[in-house]
Amino acid sequence: MKVRSSLRALKRKANSIVVRRRGKVFVLNKADPRQKARQG
Q1: Cβ(4)–Cβ(35) under 8 Å?
Q2: Do you know which SUPFAM superfamilies this protein is assigned to (predicted)?
Q3: For residue 40, is pLDDT > 90?
Q4: Neighbouring-strand partners of residue 28
């Protein structure tokens, strides 16, 4: 999982889900798990 300052590019990809957990923002992608990232 990457830690990024901006998730804008990742959330535009197909099958991406933006999730908030424990005050952090995550982008998850079941179709392409390499696109996982966290912000915060």
Answers
A1: no
A2: Ribosomal protein L36
A3: no
A4: 17
29 HSE (CA, 13 A, CB side): 20
> Does residue 14 come out as left (phi exceeding 0), alpha (psi in the -120 to 50 range) or beta?
beta
Contact (Cβ atoms closer than 8 angstroms) between residue 37 and residue 28: no
Q: What is the pLDDT of residues 6-33, one digit of tens each?
A: 999 999 999 999 999 999 999 999 999 9
Spatial separation of the C-alpha atoms in residues 5 and 39, rounded to whole Å = 6
Contact 18, 7 (CB under 8 A): yes
Do residues 37 and 6 lie in contact, with contact meaning Cβ atoms separated by under 8 Å? Answer: no
Q: pTM for the whole thing?
A: 0.82
